[in-house]
Amino acid sequence: MIDKVVVFDIWGDYGYFRRGYTTTSTISYPFPSRTTLAGIVSGILGYDRDSYYDLFGPKNSAFALQIINPIKKMRINLNLIDTKTGFILSDNKGQRTQLPAEFLKDVKYRICLWLDDDSIMDELFTYLSNHKSVYTPYLGISDCLANIKLVKNSFIEPEELLATKEDIKVHSIVPTDKAKIKIEPGKKYGAVKSPSFINAERIVKEFQEFYYEENGDTMLIVDGRYHSIGDMNVIFF
């Protein structure tokens, strides 16, 4: 049961959430996947790599994500070097591989998070309320530094509701298996499938598919469960 949530914003000049199946010319997801969100929160808390996957299981955690800034994409060429030879260009005798990569520009998201472990929720809330983190937050890769800000100065108790006969305006991205959306003219919709859960070997165990509106506008749902959080309606995943 999602009884209380912490809400915070994360934003930055650039974001790069590479789709794993794109290699020679990479493409970014329009927003961080659930696994990336878990990594961001774990970085704030200072957890070691590969140490936190159980904390973000399907039964003891839930995220909701709102796109605040419109999705803007741009191409940047990355210079890759062989790190087995060295970590600076001179070690590689100037040899490098240049790859075009799709980045997101001026990104901003609002994150709602529920964890079953109250002590970790309290710890995260303390970090966010003091604008501190153990590791520097970033959006996908460490080159894309991010800022964070707590939205409310207290936990929020969400109310779970059911959309049945009337259209409900939802502010978050919508998991396709949890609600049906109603298409509105003038809006730009997208659908994307991204990793949700990985195991200790960093193998993806489950994907989830989402509807989203590219300009960050609300979407109407005609069927499904959602949560009311203050002046927002969101769907957790």
Characterize the structure shown.
This protein is mainly beta and 237 residues long. It is built from two helices and 13 strands; from the N terminus they run E-H-E-E-E-H-E-E-E-E-E-E-E-E-E. It has helices at 34-45, 118-129; strands at residues 6-15, 61-67, 73-80, 97-115, 147-150, 159-163, 168-170, 174-175, 179-182, 189-198, 204-213, 219-229, 232-234. The strands form three sheets. Strands 1, 2, 3, 4 and 5 form a five-stranded antiparallel β-sheet that branches. The longest helix has 12 residues, at 34-45. The protein starts with 5 loop residues before the first strand and ends with a strand.
What's the short version?
The chain has 237 residues and is mostly beta strands. It has 2 helices and 13 strands; from the N terminus they run E-H-E-E-E-H-E-E-E-E-E-E-E-E-E.
Low-confidence stretches: none
Shape: globular
Order of helices and strands: EHEEEHEEEEEEEEE
**Structural class label:** mainly beta
> How far from one another are the termini?
13 Å
In percent terms, what proportion of residues is strand?
A: 35-45%
Mean pLDDT: 94
Helix content: 10-25%
Radius of gyration: 19 Å
Main sheet characteristics: 5 strands, antiparallel
Number of strands: 13
Tally of helical segments:
2
